[in-house]
Amino acid sequence: NAGVTQTPKFRILKIGQSMTLQCTQDMNHNYMYWYRQDPGMGLKLIYYSVGAGITDKGEVPNGYNVSRSTTEDFPLRLELAAPSQTSVYFCASRASGNTIYFGEGSWLTVV
Amino acid sequence: KNQVEQSPQSLIILEGKNCTLQCNYTVSPFSNLRWYKQDTGRGPVSLTIMTFSENTKSNGRYTATLDADTKQSSLHITASQLSDSASYICVVSAMDSSYKLIFGSGTRLLVRP
Which of A98, B44, B46, B87 could be disulfide-bonded to B106 (CB atoms 3.0-4.6 Å)? Predict the structure, then answer.
């Protein structure tokens, strides 16, 4: 049982490039989330999903896209990367209960 | 506006000492409050979850309290250890949309030998 797994751990992107942050969980959780954490700030919700085939915007969705074709996977796509997207990204999941499990984070720098 | 504010921003204590971290929130209607520990370079890990009717909850040397009337919570760490050095994040969710968690910016704790 690996929990929530994110890849890559670190990535440097050039302005205008695109990339996908991968997230997979092996706990059969319906709910999955993507957050970003800027230095000294609280986590902010980018997108979330309540089940396969269902996604919705969070607080800061601009510049990102997601898909949820399976229960396990919830990739986050960055199109046309901008310096403002330099941040640490966390994927998380939960079952119907309240405990949320976070991945280890993905450090993204856009230069 | 739903907000969660934590104090202090940072704290340094000696190993073996106790400390208390504070969390004030304006989230309404309130659903639950969570405390997370985030080690440097890692994802947050859940410490406690409290609903409206719970005043206190413990997890080993960590004890969280909740006063829903004053909208305040505290996290008390007893007999601190070097491994307690981390950021502690208060997270509140609203009744109307439990997926929306409002995160505080955290208290960075450093335990020195």
Answer: B87
